């Protein structure tokens, strides 16, 4: 047994968060676990190590999902940051309105919305894909679902973005985002049933609280998690769909010829570009990974994107191939903390891919603009210069 | 071998059904039903696939 190899890479440096894949490859070759001196974290880099850690909540506690103590303190007691048995109860509450079961009635409406939006954009011929589609669509779906109106609706994107940003280490991006994440936090701690549209899921959570199925005073926390975890990541995923279809017209053709590839295509988009860069855990004991030991109490960073490109698990991992159907990709996490909103994310993304593949023959896209961000890896601007309709 | 479902953990994502429709399905309420719990070695690949794809690790083999 040895100590893990070390590296001087800064996981949150601008250049790394903008284009992490070369760094992921370098770290992955060093070993399944590498200690980053600058960040004082142990990163998990290979598919098997990541998947095993996600399943092993007893060794890898979620009490430290963030890379600064303030955020971890603020998240204490939420489903995101707790371990079983407490987590199990909180998670059930969180997913009660988000499970595929609960969402079944929504599928048709989401598909109609996606189709109308895509039809409108195809008609226009040129558009900015991130604002007009990647942001517009999930915002509308989530706002309607939870029942947000007015200034909350207007702030969802800013708040959602900040909520992810503050999970990073105490760098300038984190510091600047704290006040904005605080706006979301304070709104959620005061929100009342009547602030949300009648018949919405948000209202449903308050009804559940009144009935006693949700512990008292937790409705606001649940809404906080829906918004904090669900908006920014979905925006990233949908932007990635447009960018990857634009740059891989042959792959879009495959879906056009065989619409049953839609779910497979979404899995491949998530595998190829993971929306979340790094996510934390803390070891509760010494953990041996292939002979290298992470000491108890160490801050760990799970690199989903590195695992998703591990050639030990996926053949030709740097190619974007929609027929691959990597159903076991790591981008939604796995196990007890596997993304609680993945059912909704799938509904939204499948509807968008389906509408695009039905209405579009080719997307000619300009260069994508990215800005550095701690946790969510997304495209900031993506011009669609020309749409060749189907 | 036997498939075991941790029912409270199952959220009805149905990915297991896609992987092994011969062994399990979601009923009309979206609840997972194991059509066969006791399976023989011949179906090992199917069972493993179903266990592997469950995103919340609600299925186990004993
Ligand atoms: S994949 Fe897992 S969560 Fe989904 S229905 Fe099957 S057992 Fe339940």
Compact description:
The complex is a heterodimer of chains A (390) and B (62). Chain A has helices at 14-18, 21-30, 47-55, 69-75, 86-95, 100-103, 107-124, 129-146, 150-165, 172-190, 201-211, 219-247, 249-257, 262-272, 304-308, 342-359, and strands at 6-7, 33-36, 41-44, 60-61, 127-128, 279-283, 287-289, 292-294, 299-302, 360-365, 383-389. Chain A has 390 residues and is α+β, with helices and mostly antiparallel strands.
Give a verbal description of the structure.
The complex is a heterodimer of chains A (about 400) and B (about 60). Chain A has helices spanning about 15-20, 20-30, 45-55, 70-75, 85-95, 100-105, 105-125, 130-145, 150-165, 170-190, 200-210, 220-245, 250-255, 260-270, 305-310, 340-360, and strands at about 5, 35, 40-45, 60, 125-130, 280-285, 285-290, 290-295, 300, 360-365, 385-390. In chain A, about 50% of the residues lie in helices and about 10% in strands. The radius of gyration of chain A is 20 Å and the shape is globular. The N and C termini of chain A lie far apart (about 60 Å). Chain A is α+β, with helices and mostly antiparallel strands and about 400 residues long. Chain B has about 60 residues and is of the alpha+beta class. Helix content of chain B is about 25%, strand content about 20%. In chain B, a hairpin with a 5-residue loop joins β2 (about 25) and β3 (about 30-35). The model of chain B has no long low-confidence stretch (mean pLDDT about 90). The interface between A and B is medium-sized, with 19 and 17 residues. The complex binds iron/sulfur cluster. Iron/sulfur cluster binds near residues 13, 14, 56 and 59 of chain B.
